[in-house]
Amino acid sequence: MLSRVSASKPGPKKANGGGNININVNVNVNGKTSPTSPRKAAGNVTGPAASPKNLVQSSRQGTTACGSSRKDHSVNALDMSEAVKSSAEKYASIADTPAWKALVDHIPEIEETHLRYLLKDEERCLRLSLEHNGLYSDFSRQRVTPETLELLFDLAKEAGLKEKIEQMFQGEQINETEHRSVLHVATRAERNKELIVNGKNVVEDVWKVLDKIKHFSDQVRNGEWLGATGKPIRDVVAIGIGGSFLGPLFVHTALKTEPVASMKASGRRLRFLANVDPVDVARALHNLNQETTMVVIISKTFTTAETMLNARTVRKWITAELGEEAVSKHMVAVSTNVKLVSQFGIDPDNTFEFWDWVGGRYSVCSAVGMLPLSLQYGFGIMEQFLEGARDIDNHFLNAPFEKNIPVTLGLINLWNISFLHYPARAILPYCQALAKLAPHIQQVSMESNGKGVDMNGKPLKFEAGQIDFGEPGTNGQHSFYQLIHQGRVIPCDFIGTIKSQQSVYLKGEIVSNHDELMCNFFAQADALATGKNAVELRAENVPDNLIPHKTFTGNRPSTSILLPELNAYTTGQILSLYEAMVAVKGFVWGINSFDQWGVELGKVLASKCRSKMNSARTQSRLIEASDGFNFSTTRLLNRYLKGKTFLQYPEPRDIFPCDLIDSENCIPPDEI
Question: Positions of the region Disordered (predicted)?
């Protein structure tokens, strides 16, 4: 097994002491515990009764004879520490292992196959279809065989995937560059679970915040919490960027048209303000009334440059109309920096905590997402969302690899990237309500695994990370599907639902509107897989000169994911599925999927630009060579400044569009 050598040895921890944890990771459906292999049948597990306070209960649904015959590789403190030591000494990279080389040797065998013929193998198709609590995943259109899967499972074993998953759930500091645990799974753990990290039960802390969110959101929604002028709050603006924006926006978009959630949100509006571009401010505040608007500022440190500038801007929008004292009634915060929150004018009691063991892109289940979304839909709806995410968390931790959907999805995705060398993936939901899934997963995936070095700082010997993009069907079909059918090979994730959130059927039509949508869902995956060759085209009397243009090579991989419907619960399932898939790839590649140093340099350079721009404006000058920018950037900055010379920073006045703040210094619409 290949793994990193960490400061804390992997394996089960004692229930007391700093950094230790009270958790039992192997619990079968009968409540029995045992150090059984994750690939052994749950029904064979025996042992002493399970503690009622475990972070995760097993959701094992059964396994195969193949799984039951595999070697036990469960967590064992002594054995695993020895394995880590010997593996780290033997292999510098996962790419040096026999399991990796076996997959490289397997590539020619796959190159000789075509999905057109692989799809005729019914046994293979059944083997490559997995289901868990309504979430159905079909991997039969991927360029893999059962042998490929076995080789990938061997690679996962070599990388210590099972042990690394358990370390994450146990609160080990697997984010080594920032010396942090990675516990977004704790933000949706059951109330009665126990996870001790640094002497504290973090699940207890999570539920204190969730209870506070429920109480506060109930007050606002019931009209008990009134604004500064005595009017009830009807609208919410959530200010945050990155994971503080993309995740909550994804969930909001998924629930907006779901009948039950929509009814709960009747008469309410939720908007997001992320971009520091003042256009985003104007759009977020358009037609809102300060008297009935609540602002949620989301910033862990309360120092994020873009977020805090937007927060100050919206604060001015509120105080210009209602006065300074209105801040405490119309602005709340999700942050850990109570001091700065208080200095901003927000009542410290209206601060909702989250923790450094929750990364921004993984934070939607914390107060980051739960507060604004509970204000919009009610805590009851959002609790169902947490339950869906928890369901896949349990499945991810406990299911044997052969039955584990996120593990299979992650390993096949890794196969496509590092072995078949596909540089991108398209996320294609045939459900308009999932329109913001691709942008959110784009951040979760690309910020997590867009790395060039391993955990030890050594350059990777293989391709890792991928370009994620997507658009709901059928819109994407009329945009970029030309490329994925006849241009570069881009593996796709097709996501569909059996029931629509909004059913429409017109008399005289042969199918409903949703049926029409789903016909494309089924057809596009097959078109990519099977293609159309010259023989078939000639049989249709296609002229010879057009045959090259109308040929579809096929053999283009995709995964099909089918949900019973899209509601709060299944939205949580999809979120957890993709988060876990990203972790699987990072664990096998041996990279840190939970830091993001690549975003830092641009921030530093932007700070320099900010300082020099202030100096240039204040002194009524242009950027000079002595300011330290290269020739190209100097010219760009000066071209920008020449068009903005009417604004002098020393002048002590606020300037807003008049439709936001009507004052003597406002800018009429025709002058913006």
Answer: 1-73
Report the alpha-carbon distance of residue 577 to residue 181 in Å, rounded. 20
For residue 412, what is the DSSP state? H
State how far the Cα of 196 lies from the Cα of 205, in Å rounded to an integer: 11
Tens of pLDDT, residues 541-551: 999 999 999 99
In sequence order, what are the residues at sequence separation of 6 or more whose Cβ sits closer than 8 angstroms to the Cβ of residue 383?
none
3-state secondary structure at position 18: coil
Active-site residue among 208, 286, 603, 608?
603
The one-letter amino acid at 273: L
Position 83 pLDDT exceeds 50 = no
- Pairing relationship of beta strands 129-132 and 135-138 according to DSSP bridges: antiparallel
Q: In angstroms, how far is the first alpha carbon of the chain from the final one?
A: 62
The CA-atom distances, in angstroms, between 432 and each of 33, 105, 271 are 43, 41, 18
Q: Is there a contact between 616 and 605 (Cβ–Cβ < 8 Å)?
A: no
Q: What's the distance, CA 489 to chain centroid? A: 24
Q: Which residues of 109-119 are buried (b: 16+ CB within 10 A; e: fewer)?
A: ebeeeebeebe
Q: How far apart are CA 539 and CA 552, in angstroms?
A: 15
The radius of gyration computed from the CA coordinates of the chain, to the nearest angstrom, equals 27
Task: Say how far apart CA 34 and CA 32 lie, in whole Å.
Answer: 7
Beta strand pairing status for 467-470 and 424-429?
parallel
For residue range 155-188, what is the model confidence (pLDDT) as tens digits? 999 999 999 999 999 999 999 999 999 999 999 9
* Biggest alpha carbon–alpha carbon distance for the chain: 79
Catalytic status, residue 603 = yes
Average pLDDT score over residue span 237-255 = 97
**Element at 82 (helix H, strand E):** helix 77-90
94-145 tens-digit pLDDT: 999 999 999 999 999 999 999 999 999 999 999 999 999 999 999 999 999 9
Of 478, 499, 516, 624, the active-site residue reads: 478
pTM of the model: 0.85
Overall CATH class of domain 94-170+399-595: alpha beta
Distance CA 336, CA 463 (A): 37
CA distances from 536 to 476, 546, 552 (A): 26, 13, 11
Q: pLDDT class for 658, splitting at 50, 70, 90?
A: confident
From CA 416, how far away is CA 436, in angstroms rounded?
Answer: 24
As assigned by CATH, the class of the 193-384 domain is alpha beta
Give the C-alpha separation, 146 to 113, whole Å.
13
Q: What is the per-residue pLDDT for 664?
A: 64
Q: Is 335 helix (H, G, I), strand (E, B) or coil?
A: coil
Omega cis (within 30) before 408: no
pLDDT of residue 663: 67
**Is 565 one of the catalytic residues?**
no
CA 127 to chain CA centroid, nearest Å: 28
- Nearest Cα to Cα of residue 597 among 175, 110, 64: 175
447 included as an active-site residue:
yes
Domains in the chain: boundaries: 94-170+399-595, 193-384, 616-660
| Secondary structure (3-state) at 3 | coil
**Chain-centre distance for alpha carbon 410:** 14
Q: Do domains 94-170+399-595 and 193-384 have the same CATH topology?
A: yes
* Residue tagged active-site, from 447, 451, 471, 579: 447
Q: Which residues contact 204 (CB under 8 A, 6 or more apart)?
A: 194
Structure-token pair, residue 469: 């993009």
